[in-house]
Amino acid sequence: MYASVRDDIVFLGGFSSIAEGLNELGFNAVELIIEKDYTVSPIFGRNDRLNVSSDAGLAELKNQLAKASAKVSAFLMGNNFGSDDLDGEIEWAVKTIQVAARLGVPAVRIDAAMQGESELPLEKRVEIFAGAMARILEATDGLDVDMGIENHSFQGNQPEFLDMLMEKVGSPRLGLTLDTGNFYWAGFPLDKVYEILEHLAPKAKHTHVKNINYPAEFRNVQRELGWEYQKYMSPIKEGDIDHARVLSILKKAGYDRDFCLEDESLWRFPKEERGAILKRDADYFREIL
Predict the structure, then answer these.
(1) Which residues are bridge partners to 39 per DSSP?
(2) Which residues contact 119 (CB under 8 A, 6 or more apart)?
(3) How many CB atoms lie within 10 A of CB 119?
(4) Residue 289 pLDDT > 90, yes or no?
């Protein structure tokens, strides 16, 4: 297992480029957001986005990664399988996976959030999502790239939705981008969070790592979805979730990919403090890894 960081977290931390952020954090892997126009942030600089659907853009990304002695641990998509343009969403995913295969990226994060999800019964939501995933898997058959559905939003944080979806699709290439903080964000008591993570860890293809520091009386009770997150989100080491324990759960399940730093608490702090907070997060990652 190795440490990585999300590209937007690098920029939120005040670093001028991904290369600078990786160097300062002592990491060599980054998760890149890929937009619908197939552009990603450059490794050097910030504004000249690279279109990785073109040979030239992909070659430039490869050159910049080599120069920085870095690699891409995953692509992150913000797809919406509840969109009126479902064909467009599927095409985006297929092309992203094809690019990932060319670059040697092992996983693509698939967003569980879906327009209209709160208005549909569980079985219908599973049917829609599974249908989209089946089409993507068929179109990318033979490519050595996994898809990790993040436990994100309302339905993504329903273990029963994830279980039913994995069973219905039944592909070894489909698993989870296991976010270590999102089940806690979704209101599950802390003890239950560890149970869920242990249950789902064998399906992990990729991770996001965040934390929350709730008052003691709210840690092991059921809370509302997203309750007071903006107030209590915290640097990784300072939160309630014991990430050494989470790592143990992942290792026991055979997970050996990236442990991806996604410290959203940076928003709570003055800009001049954020870089130091990320460095402390990185030191903590090294300590527990």
Answers:
(1) 51
(2) none
(3) 9
(4) yes
Beta bridge partners of 108: 75, 147
109, amino acid identity: R
Provide Rg for the chain, Cα atoms: 18
How confident is the model at residue 37, as a pLDDT? 98
Pairing of strands 174-179, 146-150: parallel
Q: 141 — phi, psi (to 5°)?
A: -55, 135
Interatomic CA distance for residues 188 and 286, integer angstroms: 28
- According to the model, what pLDDT value does residue 47 have? 86
Task: Please enumerate in sequence order all residues whose Cβ is within 8 A of that of 152, keeping only pairs 6 or more positions apart, or say none.
Answer: 111, 112, 113, 179, 182
* β 233-234/107-110 pair status: unpaired
CA 191 to CA 202: how far, in whole Å? 19
Here the tokens at position 284 are 């903590």
- What's the mean pLDDT in 142-147? 98
Backbone φ and ψ of 17, nearest 5°: -155, 165
Give the pair of three-digit tokens for residue 154: 């309302």
Structure tokens at 220: 């092991």
End-to-end CA distance of the chain: 7
